[in-house]
């Protein structure tokens, strides 16, 4: 990712856009921050915010014509915040808290003609920037139009405070001057820039060679600028006058620096905002006080508490990953960019990059389709390419994929007794690992009911490699798949897994692919389910079916045909959560994977029905009663509680896949020649809590057998004479596995297992 | 060179050599980094013991740290 791409990505995220009030404010007062303090009764902190952005809080806080209130999003619900009343309350009960610095003098003499708010603001802003600024006016006091405002609203002291502030920043104030065109020419001869405040200076005494004021810079030719106001026929608006003063001051500063007067000034003044804020769940709560009424401290706190602190965060609200890392897409992409830029040092964001489920829920929610998944997945590819991908992140999952693709599990056959295929059933590695019996039953059903021969392919679609940022491995799997389908005479592939479907649709050409669900939905004779059905169930769409509307519809049709009543809930279908498997989240960040699965299950109180094997297994692990749709369509007569069938775990998955191949080969194709590894005969006795520990530590029963087999030959294990237990280790490739066990008559009892990646001296290659 | 010692009394004995374990200085490696440590090992065949606490504790932490380097 380069800087340009970073900016492009960042611009998609609107979380940092101005809230509506601030955007509408010509000087962008941080009203949201102000309200947060006011709601806590922290008037001094609130005042600090006004001091930072308002030139004269004592004045503007009392008389601002508050365009912010019109923009307040509460207007869509009840009525706007009483922003004006709260500012009035704040400035009436505090004095200046924050004193902005005065920069060292840097030359540049500026004359400001007039005495209104535009003149005062420009003079103050320029003095703060270190310019020598002088106000020259025919009036006897500063203020211009605001002098007409009633003393009960704008007391004399407020104006006096403003004058004191100007004096503190060394603004020279020269009042009671006769101002004529000749006098102006004379005075401006030896100054560098001039501003005319049109609140108190009439157009006819402005320089004769002036041009019409440029709306962005307020430049009227030469070294002259003009803005402000009411004498030009505009309605008197204090905030407009202040904003003009500020705009003119910035133009003069640019003029004195010989910089462009107009470049990159679109953010100044009242703007629109791209922020999106949802009002869902916000209570209707009208103002309790009259707009004109002065607020009591209690009323002020309560009124400020009506502010909903506008922000977007729509994606973060739903995503466990973004919540866990306390990021929104804009900050996330910046961290990823920084992570990529590190040459030497710790790449702090690696785990974060590998923890995204790549499920795209956020992108669908985002008003600007921020592609978080694509950013994270590309970052993984970059890590792999730079050889910086942490080995522990995905190795286990990729080895699992390699196992599914290996000869032990994979299979490619035409329908028994035939030598051609019109269809090719591809149940997917996870269904094979989770519920091999339903694979067999559903395959037989397809063979019996489809018009044409149905071949079968046990394999993996390669999505783990794609998620892991391993394009070469992914490509190899896809090529092998394409070659296999070719060798079968290009049958239509029927997948039982939404991930496989999405991969084949996106990454293969010329291969016709459909889902098992659409095929079953199109058949007349659905299997008659004997399973007992809960009255209402919640269909949990997998995240990979986000773009598979027809699949989702077919699943619902099937439910309806077998008499399952469905509870539809929000954040399902195209907004569905991931179960924690997506993007290999659960391998790179186990705890987050578990939280994600739990959050998905909690979306509906009803028993769940999944049609993705990983969703089913991950959700059932969190305690959610959930079945796979195939469990109902092709129930196992030996299983009573379809909703509680346990997650087989990683070892169980391996074994299921290997047995599935064996069973299909034996029962359907009468093949019996299977070679087994020498260690596979070792009988293990493992209590459930140890199995759970092994799953968490990504240690397979296969690994345990290898360790015991390895050390049995030469007694190269440790022994504890107190209890006769053994402790043995073996490092097949990259991980050293340790097993604490004891020998019993019926096999080896496993007490504990752990592993490490560090290499001991005797294991050095 | 600093050597970190993780040697501590242990009931485990080397089964093949029938020897109690003793502390032994050695280098262990991961991802091109080398660490000098003291672990319990068999005085005869040098087989090294890594107990659970070390493997899932300090060792795991260092592995994670090195993976992000």
Topology:
The complex is a heterodimer of chains A (765) and B (69).
Chain A: H1 3-12, H2 20-24, H3 31-39, H4 43-53, H5 57-63, H6 67-71, H7 83-93, E1 109-113, H8 117-128, E2 132-136, H9 156-168, E3 172-174, H10 181-188, E4 193-197, E5 224-227, H11 238-256, H12 297-304, H13 314-318, H14 320-324, H15 329-341, H16 350-355, H17 361-365, H18 372-385, H19 391-405, E6 411-413, E7 423-426, H20 429-434, H21 436-449, E8 454-458, H22 463-467, H23 471-487, E9 492-495, H24 498-507, E10 513-515, H25 516-522, E11 536-540, H26 549-561, E12 565-566, H27 585-588, H28 590-601, E13 608-610, H29 613-621, E14 626-628, H30 629-633, H31 649-669, E15 684-686, H32 688-696, H33 701-712, E16 718-720, E17 725-730, E18 736-744, E19 747-756
Parallel strand pairs in A: 1-2, 1-4, 2-3, 4-5, 7-8, 7-9, 9-10, 11-12, 11-13, 13-14, 15-19
Antiparallel strand pairs in A: 6-8, 16-17, 17-18, 18-19
Chain B: E1 4-5, E2 13-14, E3 19-20, E4 22-30, E5 33-41, H1 52-56, H2 58-67
Parallel strand pairs in B: 1-5
Antiparallel strand pairs in B: 2-3, 4-5
Concise structural overview:
The complex is a heterodimer of chains A (765) and B (69). Chain A has 765 residues and is of the alpha/beta class.
Structure description:
The complex is a heterodimer of chains A (765) and B (69). With 765 residues, chain A is an alpha/beta fold. Chain A has 6 domains: 18-98 and 303-311, Alpha-helical ferredoxin (Fumarate Reductase Iron-sulfur Protein, Chain B, domain 2, Orthogonal Bundle), CATH 1.10.1060; 109-256, FAD/NAD(P)-binding domain, CATH 3.50.50; 314-389, no CATH class; 394-524 and 651-656, Up-down Bundle (Glutathione S-transferase Yfyf (Class Pi), Chain A, domain 2); 536-645; 678-763, YaeB-like fold (2-Layer Sandwich), CATH 3.30.2310. Chain A is built from 33 helices and 19 strands. The two termini of chain A are 37 Å apart. The mean pLDDT of chain A is 95. Chain B has one domain (4-67): Ubiquitin-like (UB roll), CATH 3.10.20. Helices cover 22% and strands 35% of the residues of chain B. In chain B, strands 1-5-4 form a 3-stranded mixed beta sheet, with no helix packed on it. In chain B, a hairpin with a 2-residue loop joins β4 (22-30) and β5. The interface between A and B is medium-sized, with 36 and 32 residues.
